[in-house]
């Protein structure tokens, strides 16, 4: 149990003892964060009792909101029955087996197996291991290079961060030598005078060009998020994925769809690959699979890959103590029950998704909004001083952080990625709650405009 402390005491202890992820430790010590002490529905509350509408669903994970007693009950029941056992050494457990079967049934038909991890990062490490094993067993040991994209986020282990496309992160460690990056399809930043459709084709063909330069016989896989989330919610132009699919179909390269953010209804289909009609050989999932209530991730493995790696003998030397943890799997089964019972995919596709996109697009009328993007229950806006020239509010893209603070003042959690403000709200939101969120965002945009004298 935690003890009773004042907010100030919590903050002091936090800065003295706790190193936070993706945080400037020096500046955090001087400017400590909010201590979140409880949550309900779509709201979080800090130790001062201040309420915030959490438009990020935690970290893109609590898609069904914070009040889901059935998940808590399933976790509690599993605690009584079997709080832990591993899946190594000829053992399995009932929730893990049931979840594996359930996931195969709700994912696209090519997927026949699942490998469980605790996180999206570990799942992407697992992808690298599966890809290597697949090509070795196919007697193609030259196929080693994995292609990814700039501004991709695939996690934070050495391997997953190598797949990710952030130069500032790569500067802090030695990346894997066999991972290469091509440019991401961010039309607003890089499209120049091209139409979105022209840019989508051009961006896709960068993949074709790189594969052909490297030689198909040396390229093992291409990994991509359907929509790049942490990179700023980069929704690709409509022409992008069909052209990438053509390029991949013509070549013998594995395709990994990283669905850690897009999975489980966020884009209006159960998975982002269904929204964009792509056919991944491997698919990464995590986050919303347990509604964020337990750490769980994994890789869906297609028959193409599974048939190769299961047909030959020899141990696959990879796995985690908590792979297929019974409590995490019980939480996932309860989460999937709710997604199905409440028709969440249909709700996002035909109800709240279109409503959010309509209201979100209206923000483009605001004087400092240069561009809006979104699909389903995900969106981003670009902050600018001049819509015509796309000039930013300040040269080093700090306006996002300024706008984020105004959001907090207005009781709204929105995330800033450079000068993109992004949201990933709960799929269970009502239209009225979406209206409230847009009102809060508009106030924060007004204050940001005033701050920059626009
Ligand atoms: C697309 C994507 N892949 C992988 C990850 C890593 O997941 P985790 O933080 O669970 O390791 C994330 C996390 O945000 C993500 O957005």
List keywords for this structure.
454 residues, alpha/beta, Aspartate Aminotransferase, domain 1, Aspartate Aminotransferase, domain 2, 2 domains, 7-stranded mixed sheet, 4-stranded mixed sheet, 15 strands, globular, binds pyridoxal-5'-phosphate
Structure description:
With 454 residues, this protein is of the alpha/beta class. The protein folds into 2 domains: 34-67 and 351-451, Aspartate Aminotransferase, domain 1 (Alpha-Beta Complex); 70-341, Aspartate Aminotransferase, domain 2 (3-Layer(aba) Sandwich). The protein has helices spanning 7-17, 25-30, 57-60, 69-81, 94-106, 120-137, 158-163, 167-170, 187-190, 196-214, 240-249, 272-275, 303-311, 326-341, 344-350, 352-362, 399-409, 431-451; strands spanning 36-40, 43-46, 51-54, 111-117, 145-149, 179-182, 219-224, 254-258, 282-285, 297-302, 369-375, 378-383, 412-413, 415-417, 420-423. The longest helix is centred in the C-terminal third of the chain and has 21 residues, at 431-451. The model has no long low-confidence stretch (mean pLDDT 97). Pyridoxal-5'-phosphate (PLP) binds at residues 119-121, 124, 153-155, 225, 229-230, 258, 260-261, 286, 297.
């Amino acid at each position: 149990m935690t003890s009773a402390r004042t907010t100030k005491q919590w903050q002091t202890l936090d800065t003295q003892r706790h190193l936070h992820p993706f945080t400037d430790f020096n500046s955090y010590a001087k400017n400590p964060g909010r201590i979140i002490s409880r949550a309900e529905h779509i709201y979080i509350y800090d130790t001062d009792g201040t309420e915030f509408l959490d438009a990020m669903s935690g970290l893109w994970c609590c898609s069904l909101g914070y009040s889901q007693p059935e998940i808590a009950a399933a976790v509690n029941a599993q605690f009584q029955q079997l709080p832990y056992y591993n899946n190594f050494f000829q053992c399995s457990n009932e929730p893990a087996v049931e979840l594996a079967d359930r996931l195969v049934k709700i994912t696209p038909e090519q997927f026949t197996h699942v490998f469980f991890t605790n996180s999206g990062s570990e799942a992407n490490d697992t992808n690298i291991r599966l890809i290597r094993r697949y090509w070795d067993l196919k007697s193609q040991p030259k196929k080693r290079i994995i292609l990814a994209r700039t501004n991709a986020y695939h996690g934070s282990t050495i391997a997953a961060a190598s797949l990710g496309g952030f130069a500032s992160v790569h500067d802090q460690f030695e990346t894997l030598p066999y991972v290469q990056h091509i440019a991401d399809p961010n039309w607003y930043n890089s499209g120049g005078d091209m139409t979105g459709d022209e840019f989508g084709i051009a961006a896709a063909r960068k993949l074709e060009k790189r594969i052909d330069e490297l030689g198909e016989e040396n390229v093992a896989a291409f990994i991509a998020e359907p929509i790049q989330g942490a990179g700023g919610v980069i929704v690709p132009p409509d022409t992008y994925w069909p052209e990438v699919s053509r390029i991949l179909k013509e070549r013998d390269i594995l395709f990994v769809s990283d669905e850690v953010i897009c999975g489980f209804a966020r884009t209006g289909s159960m998975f982002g690959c269904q929204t964009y009609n792509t056919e991944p050989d491997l698919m990464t999932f995590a986050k919303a699979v347990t509604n964020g209530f337990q750490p769980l991730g994994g890789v869906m493995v297609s028959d193409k890959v599974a048939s190769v790696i299961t047909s030959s003998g020899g141990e696959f030397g990879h796995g985690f103590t908590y792979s297929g943890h019974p409590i995490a799997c019980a939480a996932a089964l309860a989460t999937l029950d709710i997604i199905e019972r409440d028709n969440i995919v249909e709700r996002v596709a035909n109800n709240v998704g279109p409503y959010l996109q309509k209201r979100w697009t209206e923000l483009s009328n605001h004087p400092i909004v240069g561009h809006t993007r979104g699909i389903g229950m995900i969106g981003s806006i670009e902050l600018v001083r001049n819509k015509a020239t796309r000039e930013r509010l300040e040269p080093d893209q700090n306006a996002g952080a300024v706008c984020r603070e105004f959001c907090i003042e207005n009781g709204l959690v929105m995330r800033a990625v450079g000068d993109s403000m992004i949201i990933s709200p709960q799929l269970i939101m009502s239209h009225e709650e979406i209206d409230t969120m847009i009102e809060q965002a508009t106030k924060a945009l007004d204050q940001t405009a005033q701050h920059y004298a626009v």
